[in-house]
Write a structure and sequence with these properties.
Layout: H1 15-22, E1 27-31, E2 37-38, E3 53-57, E4 61-70, E5 84-91, E6 96-101, E7 114-121, E8 127-133
Antiparallel strand pairs: 1-2, 1-3, 4-5, 4-7, 5-6, 7-8
Amino acid sequence: MSVERPVPVPNAETAPYWAAAREHRLTVQRCLECGQPRFYPRAICPRCGSDRTEWMDCEGTGTVYSYTVVYRPPSEAFAADVPYVVAVVELSEGPHLMTNVVGCPPDQVTVGMPVRVRFRDMGEELALPLFEPIGT
């Protein structure tokens, strides 16, 4: 029996992010008052409280800020993927993003490792931003 993998469901605040991801572009919000880039998408700037925002494309590079290796899948939908890396990547623009590191064995991932985005298409309507080591 095959178990469907859960996928993100865009809402009014996250729809522009997921639309850009479908085009293989990584975007974050930027506050129009204080200039602070932010992730996760939200209506109010956590730095200054402004509701004025825009979307900016990112370089798609960063470093591994923190990570863990998953050996026990949270559900059958992820059983074929173990072991896999769940990481927090600090983007070159500053915000942190939770993602997966792919393209290398889990035991080769390190804090501070330079990474770049690559997208995994999940059908026609969704692409997930994943990160791989730079230089692979």
